[in-house]
Amino acid sequence: MFRRTKSESDTTVPAEPQGKVGGKGRPTPSRRDAEAARKAAFKKPRNRKEASAIRREKVRTERGKMQAAMQTGDDRYLPAADKGPVRRFARDYVDARYSVMEFALPILLVVSLVGVVFSPQFPWLAGMVNLLFLAMILLIAADWFLLTAGLKKAVGVKYPKESTKGLGFYAVRRTMQMRRWRLPKPMVKRGEKPS
């Protein structure tokens, strides 16, 4: 009376097991490897001496990565002040141009030495040294203004949503260094357009 007939039982199809969609994208590690990784993560130093040795080794490794990044421009290990595409663009913008500020320190040093050494024999030289100092200061101020205005305009075109806060001083600080001593190392040639 309440039984199924033979025709009803034949029409039902057994459900197929659903496989996992996607996956983790890597093979499952062996038990030995998984346990070794877990133990290494939780291994604590036994005393203060071991802890400081581990900390020193970690700092040394980080410093090595940072120094290598300063030479190659690898953004992952650069200091926080130099990270990001906007800072890289600013570095390239500075490195691609000639600047009065980069040569200001050597020129002012030579001018002041000439003034100190030869001013007793040539009294008129002191006035010339003062005029040269004034001219250099005016040229540095003009170069500073042109650099920061041009950089902020270029960043506004290339990265319109990024903030330019502190970017002008970052560029000026880099410009004041001689090109061969700049860190991170320059990645563009002079006259080349920054990318």
Q: Brief description of this entry?
A:
The chain is an all-alpha fold and 195 residues long.
Task: Name a few traits of the molecule.
single chain; 195 residues; mainly alpha
First CA to last CA: what distance? Answer: 83 Å
- What value does the average pLDDT take? 86
Computed structural class: mainly alpha
Radius of gyration, taken over Cα atoms and rounded to an integer in Å: 33 Å
How many H/I helices?
7
Shape: elongated
**What is the number of beta strands?**
0
Tell me the helix content: 55-70%
Molecular structure report:
The chain has helices at 6-11, 31-42, 48-72, 85-95, 100-118, 124-158, 167-175. The termini are far apart. Helix 5 runs antiparallel to helix 6. The protein is built from 7 helices and no strands. The protein is elongated and about 120 Å long. The relative contact order is 0.12. It has 195 residues and is mostly helical. Helices cover 60% and strands 0% of the residues.
Layout of helices and strands:
Layout: H1 6-11, H2 31-42, H3 48-72, H4 85-95, H5 100-118, H6 124-158, H7 167-175
